[in-house]
Automatic annotation (TrEMBL):
It comes from Paractinoplanes brasiliensis. Residues 32-179 form the AB hydrolase-1 domain. SUPFAM superfamilies: alpha/beta-Hydrolases. Gene3D superfamilies: alpha/beta hydrolase (3.40.50.1820). GO terms for cellular component: membrane. InterPro entries: AB_hydrolase_1, AB_hydrolase_fold, AB_hydrolase_sf. The keyword Hydrolase applies. The keyword Lipid metabolism does not apply. PANTHER family: HYDROLASE, PUTATIVE (AFU_ORTHOLOGUE AFUA_2G14860)-RELATED, MONOACYLGLYCEROL LIPASE. One of its GO terms (molecular function) is hydrolase activity. This is Alpha/beta hydrolase family protein. Keywords: Hydrolase. The lineage of its organism: Bacteria, Bacillati, Actinomycetota, Actinomycetes, Micromonosporales.
Length: 192
């Protein structure tokens, strides 16, 4: 009999002033924290997370004002990094996470790593991992389309400047998270 696949579990963490919606796959092994880029949401990581499921614990939160996480007054990288650390700690893992930041969230990944233990930090450039949206397979196309929200982008405009950090730039992963999620997951599993 084949084992059942690891299912995605959607939850809300935090207090009324700092709620974060997140998806989780698996409960054992090193956690991988997948941070979506601005104007996207956690669903952009579903294809990769499905490939990683069973090998580790995967967590993909919605940043404030994105997906199902409500907007808040303080969207600074430091505040959100603190909230993400609380989230990761609440999951019960004793292992430092691998943190992957997509596009502008690479700065958030670095801020997290400056403040908390991390195993590795990676950045993924570009909005889709493809030269054009047309290269994204039809099954993943809905994950590749950022929403249009000038007000939200204005809230996060300070993220577009280089974050102050004590670290070198994060290692880059090939931007294939939507064009070839299996290969992207294979790259990440090498660091577990």
């Amino acid at each position: 009999m084949d084992p059942q696949p690891v299912l995605r579990n959607t939850q809300i963490a935090g207090t009324p002033g700092n709620l974060l919606a997140y998806d989780r796959w698996g409960t054992t092994g090193r956690p991988i924290l997948l941070l979506h880029g601005l104007l996207f949401d956690r669903t952009m990581w579903w294809p990769v997370a499905a490939e990683l499921a069973g090998h580790c614990s995967v967590v993909a939160p919605d940043l404030p004002g994105h997906g199902q996480s409500p907007i808040r007054d303080d969207c600074s990288m430091a505040r959100i990094a603190d909230d993400l650390a609380t989230l990761v700690q609440s999951l019960g893992s004793t292992r430092a996470p691998i943190v992957v930041g997509h596009d502008a969230s690479a700065g958030l990944a670095l801020t997290f790593a400056d403040r908390y233990a991390t195993h590795r930090v990676f950045a993924v450039d570009g909005p889709t991992g493809a030269a054009t949206v047309e290269e994204v397979p039809t099954a993943f196309l809905s994950y590749a389309e950022p929403r249009e929200d000038p007000a939200l982008l204005k809230t996060y405009e300070h993220w577009l400047a280089a974050p102050p950090t004590q670290r070198a730039a994060p290692a880059r992963l090939p931007a294939t998270h939507l064009t070839d999620p299996a290969a992207f997951a294979t790259n990440l599993r090498a660091y577990l």
